[in-house]
Amino acid sequence: METCQLCGAVRDPAEPTALAWACERDRDGWARWLCPECARRHVRDIEAKLPREWW
């Protein structure tokens, strides 16, 4: 079961909103999830992690 690492909301893969969740994977294969609300609030943090080629 995936949960938002910031607010603890539970991701239900059967819900249409499940596609809006953001997932970050580290080098060890661990996934960290952000619900749509937290992802919107923290979009700058997410953008800062993108490779330079995206800009």
Report on the structure:
The protein is α+β, with helices and mostly antiparallel strands. The protein has one domain. It has helices at 36-41, 43-48, and strands at residues 2-3, 10-11, 22-25, 31-34. It has a two-stranded antiparallel ribbon. The protein has a two-stranded antiparallel ribbon with strand order 3-4.
For this entry, give a set of tags.
single chain, 55 residues, alpha+beta, two-stranded antiparallel sheet, two-stranded antiparallel ribbon, 4 strands
Topology overview:
Elements: E1 2-3, E2 10-11, E3 22-25, E4 31-34, H1 36-41, H2 43-48
Antiparallel strand pairs: 1-2, 3-4
Side-by-side strand order of the widest sheet: 1-2
- Per DSSP E runs of 2 or more residues, the count of β-strands stands at 4
Structural shape: globular
Radius of gyration: 12 Å
In total, the number of domains comes to: 1
Oligomeric description of these chains: single chain
β-strand amount:
15-25%
Summarize the structure.
With 55 residues, this protein is α+β, with helices and mostly antiparallel strands. The protein contains two helices and four strands; from the N terminus they run ββββαα. A two-stranded antiparallel ribbon has the order 1-2. The chain has a two-stranded antiparallel ribbon with strand order 3-4.
